[in-house]
Amino acid sequence: MSATVLTARALLLDMDGTLVNSDAVVERCWRRWALRHGLDPEAALKVVHGRQGYATMAVLLPDRPVEENYADNRAMLAEETADVDGVVPIGGAAAFMAAIADLPHALVTSADSALATARMGAAALPMPAVRVTAEQVGASKPDPEGFLKGAAELGFDAADCVVFEDSEAGIAAGRAAGMRVVGVGPRAATLAPDAHVEDLTRVRVEATGDGSIRLHISAA
Question: Which candidate in 5, 35, 178, 185 could, as Cys together with 158 as Cys, close a disulfide (CB 3.0–4.6 Å)?
């Protein structure tokens, strides 16, 4: 078994696919949306992960006015927030969150606050005190704005942060922010993150005497 050790001063955590497995809800809602708009659901699901809904809609319906995407996104968020059937924690997420509870960390998610609260609650995971949700950014991942805001709110430079992400858009955002990235789950496996794990059972967190965080990451 190979192992990687990364040292950081703060951790920035995506939610969907990284801490919470919400694939069942995402697929239900976006399949319905794609069919309503005459699109191939499988093609839609290839671009939905990691982005805010309006950004996904802009990719899939490039000629549609942005105002319609924003309106449709509000309806989609309400639909997703009301549906938590099948939302469960990623393997090892509860122990990982317990291990970092007293260490600098933030949630950086494309979900809005209501959706993040619903999904973290459904997965029985603690909500980080510092969080950057959709309402707080002007640009969706893969833009780095969310991760840069998270680092700034925690008071650390980008180079001192490690991002945990599962999606192509999210990993691109972390890289664009100048941060190292741990890829979580199957979507991340082919995206060449700095380290990759099947789930969070593969991550051991060590708090060091100088205030830094040592991540022991074991591959399968």
Answer: 178
Rounded Cα distance between 21 and 153, Å, is 26
Over residues 80-127, the pLDDT tens digits come to 999 999 999 999 999 999 999 999 999 999 999 999 999 999 999 999
**Contact (Cβ atoms closer than 8 angstroms) between residue 196 and residue 43:** no
Cα distances (Å, whole numbers) of residue 113 to 63, 109, 177: 29, 9, 22
d(CA 193, CA 188): 7
What distance in Å separates the CA atoms of residue 182 and residue 193, rounded to the nearest whole number?
6
Residue in 8, 1, 2 with CA at minimum distance from that of residue 206: 8
3-state secondary structure of 47: helix
Q: Which long-range contacts (CB under 8 A, 24 or more apart) does 114-118 make?
A: 114/77, 114/81, 115/77, 115/80, 115/81, 116/15, 118/81, 118/84
187-212 per-position pLDDT tens digit: 999 999 999 999 999 999 999 999 99
pTM for this prediction: 0.92
Cα–Cα distances (Å) from 170 to 64, 181, 209, 211, in that order, read: 24, 9, 31, 27
Cα–Cα distance measured from residue 185 to residue 169, given in angstroms and rounded to the nearest whole number: 14
User: Alpha carbon 207 to chain centroid distance?
Assistant: 23
Give the whole-angstrom CA distance, residue 69 versus residue 71. 5
